[in-house]
User: Which sequence fits this backbone?
């Protein structure tokens, strides 16, 4: 594929992204006779999908006549579509990048690499415009005549050609408005690359886009205004064919020959891998109502962590396909409550069923850890789908969407790690360790790096007598941001087990992260990979046997880089 056929475009100042589809395809559809803007006038979550009510404004390019119609946009559908295209494009661009960096010995290959490099250099210096190419093609094929005199310009044209906009609009997560003053705006961060260094990536041309036919050819078009009557203005690229709105029928005039083509500068999509991944993961999380996830590297040129090419983001669900378990367990096996009094141990069947005999959460939904001195993590039985209570029930927290925005960032010594751009209070529930559930026996035979993202669901098991049905969550090929949590011997997160999807006997509890202390924005989130070793270490220390050499270092341990005073010196990383 020629990179010129697809266009990525950012408008960093505005924090807006748009993506233009293959322009020649669209052109054949003869729908390029209008410019569009779109205002978001409302939003609604229907069947779990975020929908934007929008008003399109179209301007006929030939005569400047305009029309307006209402429409509905399924935000997720647009974002997903864009994310897929971006991923594909980024991949292709990366392939080319790798290919040209190869020490090629074959003459033909080398010549092609040189030609590509030359083309890329030229394009950076003199941005290539799609519209010019397309117009030339059309003229060549007798489908267009040389461009007529420009039509009078209309109100600022905020539309970009093609489909669709990447990144969940800030309202999708509902979190941005809560971002503390001065703190990064979460969903905006996913759309605005301004803060991220991209030391190895070619810098984009300074002109974002141009118009083919007008005297403004080399001048940037007016920036789309984000000011509306108290409403946020989001720029969507228009759909390739007339918008899917019955109310728009009959209002549009389609010219047989397009007279003008909006021009876009072709950018190197290699710049966008980090933002693409951020947008993709944020979109997937947003689908579950969870806050944004951003990839950040202030340290070196590694754009994103190494992930399987078909890695699937799972915000709060498991992939059960590798085990025989039926999900969810039959209703008749669940204990559930009927009278909505879930703060009262005597009234709520779920609370009654758990060891603590009390709600595990305070009024603000923060986890109250009563198991600090215990060997095993707490087990919380939350109300479930069969209970009479709703999502406001105090005994439902781990199952609710994550509220804290996440940054996956490059650490100095431990690869990628996790932090949040906002302060986090002690007891805040952060999210679940997700991935593919595999039988423990299958996890145990995994070797080396394949084991790096395994988390045994063994918190409550007797190590001497594990049950027959014991499982591990493997986040190597699917999972979420928690797979990037690093170990620290003095950690600020811990895990408890929670059950609401399955019955306790299934041994498939959710692994829930919560903050064990107040955590300042920007501080790395860490947890102790091996709390049992921590306990052993403490006991030995108490007995006066200090020092690393006194404890038998388990197989698979590596030197610990947590750098804390409490560092035990090594950490077990492979389960
Ligand atoms: C679950 S992954 C954590 C995410 C990982 N940093 C990454 O970039 O994908 C576990 C791996 O992180 C690294 N790691 C985490 N904590 C560490 C620590 N305290 N010291 C050294 N390496 C650590 C080890 O390479 C380990 O195998």
Assistant:
């Amino acid at each position: 594929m020629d990179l010129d056929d697809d266009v990525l475009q950012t408008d960093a100042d505005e924090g807006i992204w748009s993506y233009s589809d293959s322009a020649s395809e669209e052109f054949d559809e003869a729908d390029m006779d209008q410019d569009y803007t779109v205002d978001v006038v409302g939003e609604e979550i229907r069947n779990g999908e975020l929908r934007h009510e929008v008003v399109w404004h179209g301007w006929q390019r030939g005569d400047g006549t305009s029309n307006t119609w209402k429409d509905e946009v399924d935000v997720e559908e647009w974002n997903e579509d864009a994310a897929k295209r971006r991923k594909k494009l980024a991949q292709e661009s990366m392939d080319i990048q790798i290919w040209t960096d190869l020490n090629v010995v074959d003459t033909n290959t080398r010549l092609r690499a040189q030609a590509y490099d030359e083309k890329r250099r030229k394009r950076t210096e003199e941005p290539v415009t799609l519209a010019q190419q397309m117009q030339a093609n059309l003229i060549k094929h007798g489908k267009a005549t040389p461009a007529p005199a420009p039509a009078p310009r209309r109100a600022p044209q905020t539309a970009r050609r093609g489909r669709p906009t990447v990144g969940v609009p800030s309202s999708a997560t509902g979190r941005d408005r809560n971002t503390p003053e001065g703190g990064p705006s979460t969903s905006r961060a996913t759309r605005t690359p301004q803060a991220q260094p991209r030391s190895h990536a070619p810098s984009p041309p300074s002109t974002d886009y141009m118009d083919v036919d007008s005297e403004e050819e080399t001048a940037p078009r007016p920036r789309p205004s984000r000011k509306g009557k108290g409403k946020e203005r989001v720029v969507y690229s228009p759909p390739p064919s007339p918008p899917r709105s019955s109310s728009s029928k009959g209002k549009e005039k389609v010219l047989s020959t397009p007279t003008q083509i909006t021009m876009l500068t072709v950018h190197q999509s290699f710049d966008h891998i980090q933002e693409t991944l951020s947008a993709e993961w944020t979109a997937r999380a947003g689908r579950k109502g969870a806050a944004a996830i951003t990839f950040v590297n202030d340290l070196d040129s590694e754009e994103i962590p190494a992930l399987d090419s078909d890695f699937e983001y799972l915000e709060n669900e498991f992939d059960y396909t590798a085990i025989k378990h039926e999900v969810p367990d039959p209703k008749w096996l669940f204990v559930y409550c009927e009278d909505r009094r879930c703060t009262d141990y005597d009234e709520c069947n779920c609370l009654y069923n758990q060891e603590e005999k009390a709600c595990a959460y305070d009024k603000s939904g923060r986890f109250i850890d009563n198991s600090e001195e215990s060997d095993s993590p707490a087990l919380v039985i939350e109300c479930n789908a069969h209970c009479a209570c709703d999502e406001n029930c105090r005994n439902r927290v781990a199952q609710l969407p994550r509220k804290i925005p996440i940054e996956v960032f490059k650490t100095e010594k431990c690869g990628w790690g996790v932090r949040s751009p906002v302060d986090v209070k002690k007891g805040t529930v952060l999210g679940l360790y997700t991935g593919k559930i595999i039988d423990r026996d299958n996890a145990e035979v995994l070797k080396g790096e394949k084991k790096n993202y395994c988390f045994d669901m063994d918190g409550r098991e007797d190590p001497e007598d594990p049950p027959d049905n014991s499982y591990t969550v493997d986040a190597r090929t699917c999972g979420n941001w928690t797979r990037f949590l690093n170990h620290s011997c003095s950690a600020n997160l811990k895990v408890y087990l929670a059950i609401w999807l399955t019955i306790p006997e299934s041994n498939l509890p959710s692994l829930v992260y919560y903050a064990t202390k107040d955590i300042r924005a920007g501080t790395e989130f860490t947890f102790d990979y091996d709390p049992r070793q921590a306990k052993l270490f403490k006991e030995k220390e108490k007995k006066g046997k200090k020092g690393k050499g006194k404890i038998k270092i388990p197989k698979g341990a590596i030197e610990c880089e947590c750098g804390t005073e409490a560092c035990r010196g090594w950490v077990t990383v492979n389960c």
